[in-house]
Amino acid sequence: MRAMQIQRRYDSVGYMLAVGVSTVPRTTMRWGRTPICGQPVLTVVERGGFYLPYGDLWMDARRAKDFAVVSHAHSDHTARHRSFLATPATIDCMRVRMGAAVASRGIALHYGEVYQHGPLRIQLFPAGHVLGSAMVRVEAPNGASLLYTGDFKMRASLSAEQIEIPQADTLVMESTFGRPECVFPSTAELQAQLSDFCHTALRANEVPVLLAYSLGKAQEVLKHLQPHNFPLMAHQTIRALNVVYQQHGCPMPDTRPLDFLNMAGTVVVMPPAVRKQLPQGPHRLAMISGWGLDARSRFRYQTDTVLPLSDHADYPDLLNFVDQVKPNLVYTVHGATAQLAAALRRYGIEAWSLNGADQLELDV
Ligand SMILES: [Zn+2]
Known about the structure:
This protein is α/β, with parallel strands linked by helices. The chain is built from ten helices and 19 strands.
Protein backbone atom coordinates (compact mmCIF):
# COMPACT_ATOMS: atom_id res chain seq x y z
CA MET A 1 0.00 0.00 0.00
CA ARG A 2 2.92 2.31 0.59
CA ALA A 3 3.72 2.11 -3.09
CA MET A 4 0.21 3.22 -4.01
CA GLN A 5 0.70 6.29 -1.85
CA ILE A 6 3.87 7.17 -3.66
CA GLN A 7 1.85 8.20 -6.67
CA ARG A 8 -0.20 10.63 -4.59
CA ARG A 9 2.30 13.12 -3.28
CA TYR A 10 2.17 16.47 -4.99
CA ASP A 11 3.26 19.98 -4.46
CA SER A 12 0.76 22.84 -4.38
CA VAL A 13 0.19 22.87 -8.13
CA GLY A 14 0.04 19.13 -8.49
CA TYR A 15 3.55 18.50 -9.68
CA MET A 16 4.98 15.25 -8.58
CA LEU A 17 7.32 15.49 -5.64
CA ALA A 18 8.88 12.10 -6.06
CA VAL A 19 8.85 8.65 -7.49
CA GLY A 20 11.49 6.00 -7.38
CA VAL A 21 14.54 6.66 -9.45
CA SER A 22 17.14 4.05 -10.17
CA THR A 23 20.14 6.35 -9.87
CA VAL A 24 19.79 7.20 -6.17
CA PRO A 25 20.07 4.94 -3.14
CA ARG A 26 16.91 3.02 -2.42
CA THR A 27 16.47 4.66 0.96
CA THR A 28 16.18 8.07 -0.67
CA MET A 29 14.12 6.94 -3.64
CA ARG A 30 10.74 7.89 -2.37
CA TRP A 31 10.38 11.57 -1.66
CA GLY A 32 11.90 14.88 -2.40
CA ARG A 33 13.58 14.04 -5.67
CA THR A 34 14.50 17.05 -7.72
CA PRO A 35 12.36 16.87 -10.85
CA ILE A 36 14.16 15.73 -13.95
CA CYS A 37 16.37 18.40 -15.49
CA GLY A 38 14.90 20.86 -13.01
CA GLN A 39 11.56 20.77 -14.81
CA PRO A 40 8.38 20.02 -12.91
CA VAL A 41 6.75 16.82 -14.08
CA LEU A 42 3.02 16.45 -14.69
CA THR A 43 1.80 13.41 -12.91
CA VAL A 44 -1.15 11.10 -12.94
CA VAL A 45 -2.86 8.73 -10.57
CA GLU A 46 -4.77 5.56 -11.39
CA ARG A 47 -8.11 5.62 -9.69
CA GLY A 48 -10.72 3.88 -11.83
CA GLY A 49 -9.23 5.70 -14.79
CA PHE A 50 -6.40 8.21 -14.92
CA TYR A 51 -6.50 11.52 -13.09
CA LEU A 52 -4.22 14.53 -13.38
CA PRO A 53 -4.49 16.55 -10.16
CA TYR A 54 -2.94 19.52 -11.90
CA GLY A 55 -5.69 20.77 -14.17
CA ASP A 56 -8.28 18.43 -12.63
CA LEU A 57 -8.45 16.18 -15.66
CA TRP A 58 -9.83 12.65 -15.98
CA MET A 59 -8.82 10.37 -18.83
CA ASP A 60 -10.67 7.10 -19.56
CA ALA A 61 -12.54 7.27 -16.26
CA ARG A 62 -14.68 4.18 -15.81
CA ARG A 63 -17.29 6.03 -13.74
CA ALA A 64 -19.25 9.04 -14.92
CA LYS A 65 -17.46 12.37 -14.42
CA ASP A 66 -18.39 15.99 -15.07
CA PHE A 67 -15.68 16.03 -17.73
CA ALA A 68 -13.26 13.41 -19.04
CA VAL A 69 -11.21 12.63 -22.11
CA VAL A 70 -12.21 9.34 -23.76
CA SER A 71 -9.36 7.76 -25.72
CA HIS A 72 -11.57 5.30 -27.62
CA ALA A 73 -14.98 3.66 -27.49
CA HIS A 74 -14.10 0.28 -25.92
CA SER A 75 -16.28 -0.21 -22.86
CA ASP A 76 -13.41 -0.32 -20.38
CA HIS A 77 -12.43 3.21 -21.44
CA THR A 78 -15.85 4.86 -21.43
CA ALA A 79 -18.59 5.88 -19.00
CA ARG A 80 -21.74 7.97 -19.17
CA HIS A 81 -19.93 11.26 -18.56
CA ARG A 82 -21.79 14.54 -18.27
CA SER A 83 -19.32 15.98 -20.75
CA PHE A 84 -16.39 14.41 -22.55
CA LEU A 85 -13.75 15.08 -25.16
CA ALA A 86 -13.11 12.53 -27.92
CA THR A 87 -12.51 12.28 -31.64
CA PRO A 88 -15.59 12.52 -33.89
CA ALA A 89 -15.28 8.82 -34.79
CA THR A 90 -15.15 7.80 -31.13
CA ILE A 91 -18.26 9.87 -30.40
CA ASP A 92 -20.04 8.17 -33.31
CA CYS A 93 -18.98 4.71 -32.07
CA MET A 94 -20.23 5.64 -28.59
CA ARG A 95 -23.55 6.69 -30.13
CA VAL A 96 -23.95 3.17 -31.52
CA ARG A 97 -22.82 1.46 -28.34
CA MET A 98 -24.15 3.72 -25.57
CA GLY A 99 -26.98 5.69 -27.19
CA ALA A 100 -27.63 9.16 -28.55
CA ALA A 101 -28.02 10.81 -25.13
CA VAL A 102 -24.48 9.91 -24.06
CA ALA A 103 -22.98 10.78 -27.44
CA SER A 104 -24.71 14.17 -27.43
CA ARG A 105 -22.55 15.17 -24.47
CA GLY A 106 -19.36 14.60 -26.47
CA ILE A 107 -17.12 17.47 -27.52
CA ALA A 108 -15.47 16.52 -30.81
CA LEU A 109 -11.76 17.20 -31.09
CA HIS A 110 -9.97 16.29 -34.31
CA TYR A 111 -6.47 14.87 -34.19
CA GLY A 112 -3.92 17.61 -33.72
CA GLU A 113 -6.38 20.33 -32.71
CA VAL A 114 -5.91 22.05 -29.36
CA TYR A 115 -8.50 22.09 -26.56
CA GLN A 116 -7.79 24.24 -23.55
CA HIS A 117 -8.96 22.76 -20.26
CA GLY A 118 -8.11 25.18 -17.45
CA PRO A 119 -4.31 25.44 -17.53
CA LEU A 120 -3.91 22.33 -19.69
CA ARG A 121 -3.47 22.29 -23.43
CA ILE A 122 -4.94 19.01 -24.71
CA GLN A 123 -4.25 17.40 -28.09
CA LEU A 124 -5.28 14.02 -29.48
CA PHE A 125 -3.05 11.91 -31.72
CA PRO A 126 -4.01 8.75 -33.67
CA ALA A 127 -3.33 5.65 -31.58
CA GLY A 128 -3.74 3.06 -34.39
CA HIS A 129 -5.84 0.81 -32.12
CA VAL A 130 -9.41 1.11 -33.48
CA LEU A 131 -11.23 3.72 -35.54
CA GLY A 132 -11.02 7.08 -33.77
CA SER A 133 -8.65 5.87 -31.04
CA ALA A 134 -6.48 8.61 -29.65
CA MET A 135 -3.49 9.20 -27.46
CA VAL A 136 -3.88 12.22 -25.20
CA ARG A 137 -1.06 14.75 -24.88
CA VAL A 138 -1.42 17.42 -22.22
CA GLU A 139 0.88 20.35 -21.70
CA ALA A 140 1.12 22.69 -18.71
CA PRO A 141 1.85 26.42 -19.11
CA ASN A 142 5.49 25.86 -18.14
CA GLY A 143 5.90 23.40 -21.00
CA ALA A 144 5.77 20.20 -18.92
CA SER A 145 4.04 17.53 -21.00
CA LEU A 146 2.45 14.14 -20.46
CA LEU A 147 1.32 11.59 -23.03
CA TYR A 148 -1.34 9.02 -22.12
CA THR A 149 -1.53 6.32 -24.75
CA GLY A 150 -4.78 4.52 -24.00
CA ASP A 151 -4.55 1.36 -26.11
CA PHE A 152 -2.29 1.66 -29.14
CA LYS A 153 -0.82 -0.25 -32.04
CA MET A 154 2.25 0.64 -34.07
CA ARG A 155 1.72 -1.55 -37.13
CA ALA A 156 -0.34 -0.31 -40.01
CA SER A 157 -3.94 -1.36 -39.61
CA LEU A 158 -6.51 -1.86 -42.36
CA SER A 159 -9.25 -0.26 -40.30
CA ALA A 160 -7.68 2.25 -37.88
CA GLU A 161 -5.79 5.47 -38.46
CA GLN A 162 -2.01 5.06 -38.60
CA ILE A 163 -0.44 5.97 -35.26
CA GLU A 164 1.27 9.37 -34.92
CA ILE A 165 3.73 9.61 -32.07
CA PRO A 166 4.37 12.93 -30.33
CA GLN A 167 7.16 13.50 -27.83
CA ALA A 168 6.46 14.13 -24.13
CA ASP A 169 8.32 14.39 -20.80
CA THR A 170 6.15 11.87 -19.00
CA LEU A 171 4.64 8.86 -20.70
CA VAL A 172 1.76 6.80 -19.35
CA MET A 173 1.63 3.77 -21.61
CA GLU A 174 -0.30 0.53 -21.87
CA SER A 175 1.81 -2.60 -21.48
CA THR A 176 -0.66 -5.35 -22.38
CA PHE A 177 1.96 -7.36 -24.27
CA GLY A 178 4.95 -6.07 -22.32
CA ARG A 179 6.83 -9.38 -22.10
CA PRO A 180 9.76 -10.23 -24.39
CA GLU A 181 8.05 -13.37 -25.69
CA CYS A 182 5.13 -11.29 -27.04
CA VAL A 183 6.13 -10.85 -30.66
CA PHE A 184 3.36 -11.02 -33.22
CA PRO A 185 3.75 -12.70 -36.62
CA SER A 186 3.91 -10.41 -39.64
CA THR A 187 0.65 -8.98 -40.92
CA ALA A 188 1.04 -11.00 -44.15
CA GLU A 189 1.46 -14.18 -42.13
CA LEU A 190 -1.62 -13.42 -40.04
CA GLN A 191 -3.62 -12.68 -43.15
CA ALA A 192 -2.57 -16.06 -44.60
CA GLN A 193 -3.47 -17.86 -41.35
CA LEU A 194 -6.90 -16.25 -41.35
CA SER A 195 -7.72 -17.10 -44.96
CA ASP A 196 -6.29 -20.65 -44.62
CA PHE A 197 -8.50 -21.24 -41.60
CA CYS A 198 -11.59 -20.15 -43.55
CA HIS A 199 -10.72 -22.09 -46.73
CA THR A 200 -9.94 -25.27 -44.78
CA ALA A 201 -13.19 -25.14 -42.84
CA LEU A 202 -15.27 -24.44 -45.94
CA ARG A 203 -13.61 -27.30 -47.85
CA ALA A 204 -14.59 -29.59 -44.95
CA ASN A 205 -18.18 -28.31 -45.19
CA GLU A 206 -17.82 -26.59 -41.85
CA VAL A 207 -18.73 -22.98 -41.13
CA PRO A 208 -15.69 -20.91 -40.13
CA VAL A 209 -16.79 -18.82 -37.15
CA LEU A 210 -14.44 -15.99 -36.21
CA LEU A 211 -14.90 -14.61 -32.71
CA ALA A 212 -13.88 -10.97 -32.77
CA TYR A 213 -14.85 -8.01 -30.58
CA SER A 214 -17.41 -5.86 -32.34
CA LEU A 215 -15.42 -2.62 -32.32
CA GLY A 216 -12.11 -2.75 -34.12
CA LYS A 217 -11.17 -6.40 -34.21
CA ALA A 218 -14.20 -7.44 -36.26
CA GLN A 219 -13.62 -4.66 -38.80
CA GLU A 220 -9.93 -5.56 -39.08
CA VAL A 221 -10.86 -9.20 -39.69
CA LEU A 222 -13.42 -8.22 -42.32
CA LYS A 223 -10.86 -6.03 -44.10
CA HIS A 224 -8.37 -8.92 -44.09
CA LEU A 225 -11.01 -11.23 -45.55
CA GLN A 226 -12.21 -8.75 -48.18
CA PRO A 227 -9.76 -9.74 -50.97
CA HIS A 228 -10.86 -13.39 -50.73
CA ASN A 229 -14.50 -12.66 -51.61
CA PHE A 230 -15.93 -15.03 -49.03
CA PRO A 231 -19.70 -14.66 -48.48
CA LEU A 232 -19.65 -12.86 -45.14
CA MET A 233 -22.13 -12.90 -42.30
CA ALA A 234 -21.74 -10.60 -39.29
CA HIS A 235 -23.53 -9.98 -36.03
CA GLN A 236 -25.68 -6.85 -35.82
CA THR A 237 -23.37 -5.10 -33.34
CA ILE A 238 -20.56 -5.41 -35.88
CA ARG A 239 -22.71 -4.31 -38.81
CA ALA A 240 -23.89 -1.23 -36.88
CA LEU A 241 -20.30 -0.18 -36.26
CA ASN A 242 -19.35 -0.95 -39.87
CA VAL A 243 -21.63 1.94 -40.83
CA VAL A 244 -19.58 4.29 -38.63
CA TYR A 245 -16.38 3.02 -40.23
CA GLN A 246 -17.81 3.73 -43.67
CA GLN A 247 -18.91 7.21 -42.60
CA HIS A 248 -15.36 7.92 -41.47
CA GLY A 249 -13.74 6.87 -44.73
CA CYS A 250 -13.04 3.19 -44.10
CA PRO A 251 -15.08 1.18 -46.63
CA MET A 252 -16.18 -2.19 -45.28
CA PRO A 253 -17.07 -5.32 -47.29
CA ASP A 254 -20.73 -6.26 -47.61
CA THR A 255 -22.00 -8.56 -44.90
CA ARG A 256 -25.30 -10.37 -44.43
CA PRO A 257 -27.00 -10.25 -41.04
CA LEU A 258 -26.09 -13.22 -38.88
CA ASP A 259 -28.63 -15.98 -39.39
CA PHE A 260 -27.87 -19.10 -37.40
CA LEU A 261 -30.12 -21.22 -39.63
CA ASN A 262 -28.43 -20.26 -42.88
CA MET A 263 -24.71 -20.09 -42.18
CA ALA A 264 -23.62 -22.87 -44.56
CA GLY A 265 -21.05 -21.69 -47.10
CA THR A 266 -20.39 -18.39 -45.34
CA VAL A 267 -17.67 -17.01 -43.10
CA VAL A 268 -19.24 -15.81 -39.85
CA VAL A 269 -17.82 -12.96 -37.77
CA MET A 270 -19.36 -12.38 -34.36
CA PRO A 271 -18.40 -11.16 -30.90
CA PRO A 272 -17.28 -13.84 -28.42
CA ALA A 273 -20.28 -13.13 -26.18
CA VAL A 274 -22.68 -14.33 -28.89
CA ARG A 275 -21.04 -17.71 -29.02
CA LYS A 276 -23.36 -19.25 -26.45
CA GLN A 277 -26.24 -18.71 -28.89
CA LEU A 278 -24.45 -20.69 -31.61
CA PRO A 279 -26.50 -23.81 -32.41
CA GLN A 280 -24.91 -27.23 -32.72
CA GLY A 281 -23.61 -27.74 -36.21
CA PRO A 282 -20.64 -28.26 -38.42
CA HIS A 283 -18.56 -25.21 -37.58
CA ARG A 284 -14.97 -24.45 -36.77
CA LEU A 285 -14.21 -21.77 -34.20
CA ALA A 286 -11.33 -19.30 -34.14
CA MET A 287 -10.86 -16.69 -31.46
CA ILE A 288 -9.11 -13.59 -32.80
CA SER A 289 -6.76 -12.39 -30.06
CA GLY A 290 -3.16 -11.45 -29.51
CA TRP A 291 -3.14 -14.07 -26.76
CA GLY A 292 -3.05 -16.63 -29.56
CA LEU A 293 0.72 -16.24 -29.26
CA ASP A 294 0.38 -18.76 -26.45
CA ALA A 295 -0.52 -22.13 -27.97
CA ARG A 296 -2.40 -23.03 -24.79
CA SER A 297 -4.82 -20.12 -25.26
CA ARG A 298 -7.15 -22.28 -27.35
CA PHE A 299 -7.88 -24.32 -24.25
CA ARG A 300 -8.71 -21.15 -22.34
CA TYR A 301 -10.99 -19.87 -25.09
CA GLN A 302 -12.31 -23.36 -25.90
CA THR A 303 -11.91 -22.82 -29.62
CA ASP A 304 -10.26 -24.81 -32.41
CA THR A 305 -7.60 -22.15 -32.73
CA VAL A 306 -6.67 -18.64 -31.60
CA LEU A 307 -5.31 -16.39 -34.34
CA PRO A 308 -2.95 -13.78 -32.88
CA LEU A 309 -4.28 -10.76 -34.76
CA SER A 310 -4.09 -7.96 -32.21
CA ASP A 311 -5.00 -4.31 -32.03
CA HIS A 312 -2.24 -3.69 -29.47
CA ALA A 313 1.50 -3.16 -29.81
CA ASP A 314 3.74 -6.18 -29.26
CA TYR A 315 6.87 -6.09 -27.13
CA PRO A 316 9.33 -4.79 -29.77
CA ASP A 317 6.84 -2.12 -30.75
CA LEU A 318 6.34 -1.05 -27.13
CA LEU A 319 10.09 -0.46 -26.86
CA ASN A 320 10.19 1.23 -30.23
CA PHE A 321 7.33 3.48 -29.14
CA VAL A 322 9.18 4.65 -26.01
CA ASP A 323 12.22 5.33 -28.13
CA GLN A 324 10.18 7.69 -30.30
CA VAL A 325 8.38 9.51 -27.48
CA LYS A 326 11.73 10.15 -25.75
CA PRO A 327 10.24 10.55 -22.26
CA ASN A 328 12.13 11.31 -19.06
CA LEU A 329 9.77 9.14 -17.08
CA VAL A 330 7.48 6.25 -18.03
CA TYR A 331 4.54 4.77 -16.16
CA THR A 332 3.17 1.46 -17.39
CA VAL A 333 -0.50 0.52 -17.07
CA HIS A 334 -2.46 -2.66 -17.94
CA GLY A 335 -1.00 -6.10 -18.39
CA ALA A 336 2.70 -6.73 -17.91
CA THR A 337 3.34 -3.41 -16.17
CA ALA A 338 6.19 -4.48 -13.88
CA GLN A 339 7.96 -6.51 -16.58
CA LEU A 340 7.92 -3.72 -19.14
CA ALA A 341 8.97 -1.09 -16.60
CA ALA A 342 11.88 -3.29 -15.50
CA ALA A 343 12.95 -3.77 -19.11
CA LEU A 344 12.88 -0.03 -19.72
CA ARG A 345 14.97 0.60 -16.60
CA ARG A 346 17.53 -1.86 -17.94
CA TYR A 347 17.68 0.35 -21.02
CA GLY A 348 18.38 3.31 -18.74
CA ILE A 349 14.89 4.83 -18.85
CA GLU A 350 13.19 5.61 -15.57
CA ALA A 351 10.02 3.53 -15.65
CA TRP A 352 7.57 2.24 -13.08
CA SER A 353 4.32 0.45 -12.97
CA LEU A 354 1.73 3.11 -12.16
CA ASN A 355 0.03 0.85 -9.63
CA GLY A 356 3.31 0.60 -7.75
CA ALA A 357 3.69 -3.18 -8.09
CA ASP A 358 7.39 -2.97 -8.91
CA GLN A 359 8.11 -0.52 -6.12
CA LEU A 360 6.62 -2.99 -3.69
CA GLU A 361 9.03 -5.57 -5.09
CA LEU A 362 11.90 -3.21 -4.25
CA ASP A 363 10.82 -2.92 -0.62
CA VAL A 364 13.10 -4.85 1.69
ZN1 LIG B 1 -9.21 -0.81 -26.55
